[in-house]
Amino acid sequence: MSSARRERARFLFERTIRDRLGVILPYVEGRDVLDVGCVDSRPSRDTAEGRVLRPNLLHKRLAAAEGAHVLGVDVDREGIEALSRLGLSAICADAETMDLGRTFDTIIAGEVIEHMENPGRFLRNLRRHLRPDGVLIVTTPNPFSAAQAWRIWRHGRPRVHEDHLGWQDPATLSALLRRTGFEPFAGYWFQPKRRLVKTWKRILRPYFSTHIVVLARRAGP
Fold first, then answer.
1. Cys staple from 28: which of 65, 100, 110, 122, with CB 3.0 to 4.6 Å?
2. Domain ranges in the chain?
3. Within 13 A of 52's CA, how many CA atoms are on the CB side?
4. Which residues have a Cβ under 8 Å from the Cβ of 131 and sit 6 or more positions away?
5. In angstroms, rounded to a whole number, what is the distance separating the alpha carbons of residues 135 and 181?
6. Mean pLDDT to the nearest integer, 41-65
7. What's the confidence (pLDDT) of residue 199?
8. pTM to 2 decimals?
């Protein structure tokens, strides 16, 4: 990554937000939207099966946006069936290889790129489904967050989700987007309210925030 591109990536990330919906919503209202990774599937003590299947919080908020036509996609077939029973529009498909036969104004990839076996193929496939003037919004955990540093000090290792296959930070994600046919035009540190004892570093250096949000458009035809 050239020094000029590193500087551009740094420049994008000058603002910290508490709620990513404030950034995302203007690109959702009144638009055709694809939400990738729409199922919330996690262990639960409240179900006999040990899992609770429901739309994730972001998908619920997107589906409620005024005038939005939101299609969810996820590889979790049981989860998609659960969402369909709730009246939500969702299909089961692999985001790295799917061909939906249509394009969208906005594609949201919220906390999903870190689950991909091949993030480059994933992004190229999303580009195929994005309209020429559309916007891709990617959110992902920040591997350098203060919370992770706190866990390393306390437990000797970071916390890694069992399904996570890779990390992205502002520099690597911006470079990956450009290599796969996108041009980032906005970036944000995303820091939901957390216990100050774990996250105080991000007050001094936003690079310690828990997540990042990147907005990009298609580059070229």
1. 65
2. 3-218
3. 10
4. 103, 104, 105
5. 12
6. 64
7. 56
8. 0.85
Mean pLDDT of 67-75: 95
Q: How far apart are CA 190 and CA 206, in angstroms?
A: 9
Q: Order of strands, edge to edge, in the sheet holding 32-36?
A: 13-17, 182-190, 211-218, 130-141, 104-110, 32-36, 69-74, 90-92
User: pLDDT by residue (tens digit) across 15-50?
Assistant: 877 788 889 999 999 999 999 999 875 554 344 444
- Would you report the helix, strand and coil content of the chain in percent, each value rounded to 5? 35, 30, 35
68-83: average pLDDT: 92
Check pLDDT > 90 for residue 52. no
| Percent of the chain surpassing pLDDT 90 | 47
**pLDDT tens profile 202-215:** 555 676 788 899 99
Q: Which residues lie closer than 8 Å to 140 by C-beta, 6 or more apart?
A: 111, 112, 113, 114, 168, 173, 211, 212
Per CATH, is 3-218 categorized as 3.30.9.10? no
Contact assessment for residue 189 and residue 209, using Cβ atoms and an 8 Å cutoff? yes
The answer to whether the CB of 99 falls within 8 A of the CB of 187 is no
How many CB atoms neighbour CB 120 within 10 A? Answer: 12
H or E element: which one contains 51? Answer: strand 51-55
Element (DSSP H or E) covering residue 4: helix 3-12
User: In which residue are the tokens 């990774």 written?
Assistant: 37
